[in-house]
Design a protein that fits this description.
Length: 75
C-alpha cells in the first residue's frame, strides 16, 4: 500500500473512532510522528494495525440480516 493511502486510511480511522475532522486527524498523526521521531507513514501504519486488531465482525445473525437487506435494496 502506498504511503499516502496508508496516511489517508489512518486519518479515516481516527475520524471515525474519535469523531473528529480530517484536519484534526491529520494533526494527530503528524504530532505523534514529530514527537516520537517516527515517519508519518509508520505512525499511520501502526494506527491501522491497532484498528484492525480491535475491530470486531458483527454477529452472524446481524451479518445475515444486512446481507438480506442489501439483496432487497439491490433487486
Amino acid at each position: 500500500m502506498a504511503c499516502r493511502e496508508v496516511i489517508c486510511r489512518a486519518q479515516g480511522v481516527l475520524m471515525a473512532v474519535h469523531n473528529c475532522t480530517a484536519q484534526v486527524a491529520a494533526g494527530i498523526l503528524s504530532g505523534v510522528a514529530r514527537s516520537s521521531g517516527t515517519e508519518l507513514h509508520t505512525v499511520a501504519g501502526n494506527v491501522l494495525v491497532v484498528a484492525e486488531r480491535n475491530s470486531q465482525s458483527p454477529p452472524e445473525a446481524l451479518r445475515a440480516a444486512i446481507t438480506c437487506a442489501l439483496r432487497k435494496v439491490l433487486q
